[in-house]
Structure formats: C-alpha cells, structure tokens
Design a protein that fits this description.
By secondary structure, this protein is of the alpha+beta class. It has one domain (3-98): Pantoate--beta-alanine Ligase, Chain: A,domain 2, CATH 3.30.1300.10. The protein is 37% helix and 25% strand. It contains three helices and three strands, in the order ααβββα. A three-stranded antiparallel beta sheet has the order 1-2-3, with helices on one face.
C-alpha cells in the first residue's frame, strides 16, 4: 500500500480506486481502437467523476519519451492522473501498451 493511502479512511480508499479504474478504462478504450487523447482522457474522467470525494487535478495523455501532451496515442503513450481524495494527493499512470499486472487485473 502506498504511504499516501495511510492518510485515507476505508471509505476514501474505496473512492481512490477510481484512479486505477480510470486508467484501466483508458487501456480498454485503446485496445478497442480509441487513439484520440480526448477520448482516452474521457474514459479516465468517467471513472473519476463517478466516485464521490475525488477532486481531479489533471488527466494527461503524453509521450513516454518527453512527457509532452499528444493528440493521438500510440503504443508508447502514457496516461497520467492526479487527484485528491480526503487529505491525500494521489498520482498514477499507465503505458497503454503494457499496463502494470495489478492494473491488468481490472481489465
């Protein structure tokens, strides 16, 4: 468990899972053919906005090489998210072509 999660209540931890769900949504959308940054960002925001108590700071679709925003995704594109839940600022990211095994469980 991340040290930031120690600051969250059990209910807030449940809400914080929306970050992982959102990133999983982006991977699924990519696998289904979505390449537009707006569509991928929307897939993440759908999960974040469905969770109570999640204050979204950013959802970015960026190049893995230089972290610059992209308009069209490819296999090396990274989707990054930051949000506050309770008193903790949480950050996470996923490379669209190779999600973390833990995230892959949500797919």
């Amino acid at each position: 468990m991340s040290s930031r999660n120690e600051y969250l209540t059990a209910e807030e931890r449940t809400h914080a899972l929306s970050l992982s769900r959102g990133l999983a949504n982006a991977v699924m959308a990519y696998r289904s053919g979505e390449r537009g940054a707006d569509g991928l960002r929307g897939a993440v925001l759908e999960a974040l906005e469905a969770a109570d108590g999640v204050d979204v700071e950013y959802v970015e679709v960026v190049s893995r090489d230089d972290l610059e925003p992209v308009s069209q995704a490819d296999a090396d594109t990274v989707v990054a998210v930051a949000a506050s839940v309770g008193g903790a600022r949480l950050i996470d990211n996923v490379r669209l072509s190779s999600p973390d095994p833990g995230l892959a469980a949500l797919l």
